[in-house]
Design a protein that fits this description.
The protein is of the alpha+beta class. It has 5 helices and 18 strands. The chain has a single domain, classed as q2cbj1_9rhob like domain (Jelly Rolls), CATH 2.60.120. Strands 1, 4, 5, 8, 13, 15 and 18 form a 7-stranded antiparallel sheet that branches. A 4-stranded antiparallel sheet has the order 6-14-9-12. It binds 2-oxoglutaric acid. 2-oxoglutaric acid binds next to β5, β14 and β15.
Length: 280
């Protein structure tokens, strides 16, 4: 694998306690393998009410892409796989979920005392989708400084190897960001996983697969006839994080603090004061 041009002198920072949510064993697993699975984080009612808000938003995006872009827009292919970003701006239940105590405690343990929501999106993989979503690191899509942030893949339906659950390549997060190549299906970090110890991470609806922004992962095809695989992906980054772009030889740094969607989750280790929780 080739290193990303901006990935210079990266040093993975091991997470150390005291922890609020995770055990010492989970911290060790995260440090060594770059991922954790939490089952039964959100109850069925919470997931159902959230999904009721998200489905129409996703459907509207599909209709728009069908109508104006011939069913295809970068990594979204209608009827197969859809990515619907920034739903916290349109779904009160999604926003509420990002502010759940589970996430406040998790980001404290895995990122620190001052953390913001960085990104959120639904990812729906429809029955009969034959293509996988390629191996990548999330920091390979948009380069964030610091490179080490957090992705939480919340299962809205049961996810398994038949309908396209995440599959991770443990250990490689410690090397920082690799260069990614643009393919028909998405960015690809060029890993040949044959013979490597990849781990499928099936998870029931309401569970969360947590991985580092640097953990290589893919999702498989959805070979079922009737089981959509729906996920809500939320990402958190240390306050002060910037997106770095280097187009046309010009480097630009953009702070990740858009008030309506990159609001604080923890300030000095505590929930933000009222009024600093993001625009409604
Ligand atoms: O859920 C999927 O199928 C792919 C999502 C993913 O890998 C991501 O959001 O980084």
């Amino acid at each position: 694998m080739i290193k990303h041009e901006l990935n210079q002198g990266f040093d993975w920072k091991n997470r150390e306690g005291p922890f609020r949510l995770i055990s010492d064993e989970q911290a060790q697993q995260y440090n060594e393998s770059g991922f954790l699975v939490f089952e039964d984080v959100f109850d069925a009612d919470t997931i159902e009410r959230l999904t009721e808000e998200l489905d129409p938003i996703e459907q509207k995006l599909e209709e728009l892409i069908d109508e104006h872009f011939g069913g295809r827009m970068f990594i979204t292919r209608t009827g197969e796989i859809t990515f619907t970003p920034h739903v916290v701006t349109r779904s009160p239940k999604a926003k509420e979920l990002t502010q759940a105590q589970f996430f406040r405690d998790l980001v404290h343990d895995l990122l620190g005392d001052d953390v913001r929501l960085y990104w959120d999106q639904t990812v729906y993989k429809k029955p009969g989708t034959v293509d996988l979503f390629p191996w990548h690191q999330d920091n390979g899509y948009t380069y964030v400084d610091p490179q080490q942030y957090l992705t939480c893949w919340v299962a809205l339906t049961d996810a398994d190897e038949e309908n396209g659950c995440p599959v991770v390549l443990p250990g490689y997060h410690r090397e920082g960001t690799w260069a990614h190549e643009r393919t028909e299906l998405g960015l690809d970090c060029g890993v040949d996983a044959t013979g490597l110890d990849t781990i499928a991470a099936p998870v029931r609806a309401g569970g969360v697969v947590v991985f580092s922004s640097l953990t290589p992962h893919k999702t498989g095809p959805n070979t079922t006839k009737d089981r959509p695989r729906k996920a809500y992906v939320v990402q958190f980054a240390p306050d002060g994080a910037h997106v770095i772009t280097t187009e046309g030889g010009k480097t630009e740094r953009t702070r990740c603090d858009a008030p309506e969607r990159q609001y604080p989750i923890l300030v000095g280790g505590a929930p933000p004061p009222p009024g600093d929780e993001g625009a409604a």
